């Protein structure tokens, strides 16, 4: 057994800049790998066939490697002397390499000690990999960058009893016994791929498999691999995979290109899932489901994520990123595709609208906040210290909105033409966001040069609108002005290319036909293109006064400023044909009142809600012509986080008190209607996660959540009875949530009952990890749960800091979704946050960095709280051996 070659110390981490991109000195054509799997010491032998890049003059061959031991290095069949290469903690450089290279590298990995879950690691006795973004360098030395694409042949060897299943990318070409209690499997991926798409899985797994016929007539093998005992929870994932394959064929003409497609689920995973070519590795959260353990939200999440990772097979794998600054090229485009997939599967226009509203809520609550904080960055960042920190809502969700704007500007057919040209030009290549933009422009004969600013400028644009109706001329004039606040490194912003979908609603609630001055085309919705700082649009033949319906279907990721009066908003809520604008009107009505309530609380004056608002909610609640899921969205008040974003200085306790007061007033005013809606939206019979049934459950459970704010025994017992009688996890969780979040008066009366139910729930589901995650989250987000109780829950035998799902279910849930308690006046929440970030940093820097972002917006709070938050941030900053991941987040927060 060879001794490991010694490494020198690594350099201090520095920023990497997009402007400094240069292609690699050498290309890799072919990779051959052999793994001898053992948790303590996995031996990896790699052979790389490489050639000099003719566009580069440098002679050095640069490979990356981290946390691995180098045993041997051979160049073109000859052992390399130490004088021929330099080895640091993160890099291997071969000096003056020849034009043609066959490099043989032998390394060892202690996979059982890898708590970062990046590279090769062990979970519950099984081997898994996660190589995006830079995990492959933790397996072997390699030019680990996305523009280096190669074909891979992989031989896996391991103990037959311990690792009966051996999986890697592509197609299985050979397998057999080795005669010593071990066996082998050889895999070949026929498509060139970057190293971040490499995958390996080995262990005790079982699978559900089906043969599936593609539209071309070719049959493929589909497999969903899980740990024993979970096979009864895989059908929905399999169904989602088949729907994804068929949808991509029909919507975009894209066919599965391998003979098999595999999904593997593990409970120890940093992300939701990973699109490794032909071998997707998933967090169990996005695979396992049956009615007993999964909610409607879980079912929808599985369908969406399975679709997302499958769609990456083309938008990410066949065409990949030139460099990590282009990450949104694959992620923003694929999020758009999975959103469209989910919308199309619903099958109704209202259902699509509900999906759209849900996506917009996520964007506004998370991405708009990110744009306004220290981690603000463009969709295509200009620099980073640690790439893992840029797997953000800006890259994903805002990136998807950028793609959707192409769709809005070019139309359904125009967008498809752009996609077809994109694949025609770039299949098998590593390209840039500009390449995608140019394909869209060229396919449609459009000038989209200005559109590039959506990729290069950070921040959320603001569009200020003013409208004027001229009765004598029968015209309606709309003036639009755009601006964008400064962000780190960008003080001045140039005008964006913003599509503003626009309509007019008349006094009777009807749609007004729109005709722009000087144009002959008439439509009910016009896509106005705002490209300058200010523009005016004049509509002719408008016979009566109207109410504008602005930013229909949320046509651009902007903040719209228009001085609607309450009566106009109520009119839009009642009549607008665009579901998004209808919902938005309700949200604006609610937000005004919630902000007024917070102000009243701060001033110590009596609180009240007006009849106009309550009646508007009542009309929506009892309107059975509306989709139940849409009614639930309208009845759901803006979150406490959204209210905080609307305030100059956030007041978490005041916000919570205001929102609870509003909920109680709504419950009191609508109690008879809520009871009727609760009864009318029962879903008896066999559980189904279809959109209509899920919508009815959502509305029913929204009604229940309001009813328990009505401090009477009968409503609490309604929740208790639902919990006891529930035949699916959706209704059971909703009932338990209602009991935990009920009015303060009822909470004191029924605390013992609630605690007993929590104990019973744990006993029933203690062997189902995903349900116990829910159990922790329920308690972490309850308004009565303080820091002391969270620390106590961390001592529970079921809690493990090392499991990302479990850490997210308790620690993240408390810090991010229980603002009134997290921001308690004594600062104990911030001390808890600092303790948790420091502890996680030692185990898993990626997870720690995500938790670190809970204090991104620390300057938005009162001075006393700012002082405590800053002290917590500085404490983390001074921690020894702080990872690059956490250090970058903390330093940017403190630099404000």
From TrEMBL:
InterPro entries: Aminopeptidase_N-like_N, Aminopeptidase_N-like_N_sf, PepN_Ig-like_sf, Peptidase_M1, Peptidase_M1_dom, Peptidase_M1_pepN, Peptidase_M1_pepN_C, Peptidase_M1_pepN_C_sf
Primary enzyme class: hydrolase
GO BP term, pick one: proteolysis
Aminopeptidase N-like N-terminal domain: residues covered: 77-197
This protein's record includes keyword Protease: yes
Cross-referenced Pfam families: DUF3458, DUF3458_C, Peptidase_M1, Peptidase_M1_N
UniProt domain Peptidase M1 membrane alanine aminopeptidase: residue ranges: 237-454
Keywords: Aminopeptidase, Hydrolase, Metal-binding, Metalloprotease, Protease, Zinc
Peptidase M1 alanyl aminopeptidase Ig-like fold domain span: 459-562
Reactions catalysed according to its record: Release of an N-terminal amino acid, Xaa-|-Yaa- from a peptide, amide or arylamide. Xaa is preferably Ala, but may be most amino acids including Pro (slow action). When a terminal hydrophobic residue is followed by a prolyl residue, the two may be released as an intact Xaa-Pro dipeptide
GO terms for MF: alanyl aminopeptidase activity; metallopeptidase activity; zinc ion binding
Keyword Metal-binding listed: yes
Enzyme Commission number: 3.4.11.2
Domain of life according to the entry: Bacteria
Gene3D superfamilies: 2.60.40.1840, 3.30.2010.30, Neutral Protease Domain 2 (1.10.390.10), Peptidase M1, alanyl aminopeptidase, C-terminal domain (1.25.50.10), tricorn interacting facor f3 domain (2.60.40.1730)
Cofactor: Zn(2+)
Record-annotated Peptidase M1 alanyl aminopeptidase C-terminal domain positions: 566-895
Family assignment from sequence similarity: Belongs to the peptidase M1 family.
Cited function: Aminopeptidase N is involved in the degradation of intracellular peptides generated by protein breakdown during normal growth as well as in response to nutrient starvation.
Name of the featured protein: Aminopeptidase N
Species this chain originates from: Undibacterium fentianense
């Amino acid at each position: 057994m060879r001794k490991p070659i010694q490494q020198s110390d690594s350099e201090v981490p520095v920023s990497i800049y997009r402007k400094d991109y240069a292609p690699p000195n050498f290309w890799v054509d072919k990779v051959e790998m052999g793994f001898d799997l053992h948790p303590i010491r996995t031996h990896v032998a790699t052979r790389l066939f490489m050639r000099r890049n003719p566009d580069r003059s440098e002679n050095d061959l640069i490979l990356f490697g981290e946390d691995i031991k180098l045993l041997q290095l051979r160049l073109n069949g000859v052992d390399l002397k130490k004088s021929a290469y330099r080895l640091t903690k993160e890099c291997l450089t071969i000096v003056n390499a020849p034009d043609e290279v066959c490099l043989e590298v032998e390394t060892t990995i202690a996979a059982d000690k890898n708590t970062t879950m990046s590279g090769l690691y062990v979970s519950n006795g099984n081997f898994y990999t996660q190589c995006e973004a830079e995990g492959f360098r933790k397996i072997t030395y390699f030019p680990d960058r996305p523009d280096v694409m190669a074909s891979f042949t992989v031989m896996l060897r391991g103990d037959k009893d311990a690792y009966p299943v051996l999986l890697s990318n592509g197609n299985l070409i050979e397998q057999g016994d080795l005669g010593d209690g071990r066996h082998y499997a050889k895999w070949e991926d026929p498509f060139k791929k970057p190293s971040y798409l490499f995958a390996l899985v080995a262990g005790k797994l079982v699978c559900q498999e089906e043969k599936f016929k593609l539209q071309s007539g070719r049959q493929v093998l589909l497999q969903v691999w899980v740990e024993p005992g979970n096979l009864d929870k895989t059908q929905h994932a399999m169904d989602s995979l088949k729907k994804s394959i068929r949808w991509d064929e029909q919507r975009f003409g894209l066919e599965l290109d391998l003979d098999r497609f595999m999904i593997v689920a593990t409970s120890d995973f940093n992300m939701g899932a990973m699109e490794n070519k032909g071998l997707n590795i998933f967090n169990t959260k996005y695979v396992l489901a049956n009615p007993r353990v999964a909610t409607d939200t879980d079912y929808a999440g599985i369908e969406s994520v399975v679709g997302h990772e499958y769609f990456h097979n083309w938008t990410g794998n066949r065409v990949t990123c030139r460099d990590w600054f282009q990450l949104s090229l694959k992620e923003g485009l694929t999020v758009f595709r999975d959103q469209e997939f989910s919308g199309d599967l619903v099958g109704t226009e209202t259902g699509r609208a509900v999906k759209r509203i849900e996506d917009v809520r996520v964007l506004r609550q998370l991405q708009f906040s990110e744009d306004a904080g220290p981690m603000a960055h463009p969709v295509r960042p200009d620099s980073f210290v640690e790439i893992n920190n840029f797997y953000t809502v800006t890259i994903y969700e805002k990136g998807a909105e950028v793609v959707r704007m192409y769709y809005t500007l070019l139309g359904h057919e125009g967008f498809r033409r752009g996609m077809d040209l994109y694949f025609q030009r770039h299949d098998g290549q590593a390209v840039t966001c500009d390449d995608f933009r140019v394909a869209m422009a060229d396919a449609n004969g459009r000038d989209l040069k200005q559109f590039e600013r959506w990729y290069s400028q950070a921040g959320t644009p603001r569009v200020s609108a003013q409208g004027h109706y001229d009765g004598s001329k029968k015209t309606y004039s709309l003036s639009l002005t755009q601006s964008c606040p400064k962000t780190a490194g960008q003080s001045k912003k140039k005008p964006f290319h913003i599509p503003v979908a626009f309509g007019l609603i008349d006094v009777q609630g009807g749609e007004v036909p729109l005709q722009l001055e000087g144009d002959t085309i008439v439509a009910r919705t016009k896509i106005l293109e705002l490209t300058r700082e200010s523009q005016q649009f004049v509509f002719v033949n408008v016979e009566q006064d109207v109410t504008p319906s602005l930013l229909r279907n949320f046509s651009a990721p902007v903040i719209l400023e228009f001085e609607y009066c309450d009566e106009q908003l109520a009119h839009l809520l009642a009549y607008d044909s665009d579901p998004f604008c209808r919902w938005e009107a309700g949200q604006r009505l609610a937000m005004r009142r919630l902000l007024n309530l917070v102000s009243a609380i701060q001033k110590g004056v009596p609180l009240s809600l007006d009849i106009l608002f309550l009646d508007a909610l009542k009309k929506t609640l009892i309107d059975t012509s509306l989709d139940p899921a849409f009614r639930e969205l309208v009845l759901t008040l803006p979150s406490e986080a959204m209210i905080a974003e609307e305030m100059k200085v956030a007041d978490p306790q005041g916000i919570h008190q205001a929102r609870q007061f509003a909920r109680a007033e709504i419950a009191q005013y609508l109690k008879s209607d809520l009871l009727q809606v609760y009864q009318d939206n029962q879903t008896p019979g066999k559980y189904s996660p279809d959109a209509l049934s899920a919508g009815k459950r959502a509305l029913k459970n929204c009604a229940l959540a309001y009813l328990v704010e009505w401090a009477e025994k009968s409503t609490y017992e309604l929740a208790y009875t639902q919990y006891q009688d529930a035949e699916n996890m959706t209704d059971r969780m909703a009932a338990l949530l209602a009991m935990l979040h009920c009015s303060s008066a009822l909470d004191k009366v029924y605390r013992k009952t609630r605690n007993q139910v929590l104990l019973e729930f744990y006993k029933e589901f203690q062997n189902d990890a995903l349900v116990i995650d829910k159990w922790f989250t329920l308690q972490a987000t309850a308004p009565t749960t303080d820091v002391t109780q969270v620390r106590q829950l961390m001592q529970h035998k079921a809690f493990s800091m090392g499991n990302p799902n479990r850490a997210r279910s308790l620690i993240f849930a408390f810090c991010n979704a229980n603002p009134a308690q997290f921001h308690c006046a004594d600062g104990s929440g911030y001390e808890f946050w600092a303790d948790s970030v420091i502890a996680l940093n030692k185990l898993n820097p990626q997870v720690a960095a995500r938790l670190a972002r809970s204090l991104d917006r620390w300057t938005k709070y009162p001075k006393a709280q700012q002082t405590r938050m800053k002290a917590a941030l500085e404490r983390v900053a001074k921690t020894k051996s702080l990872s690059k991941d956490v250090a970058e987040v903390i330093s940017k927060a403190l630099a404000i």
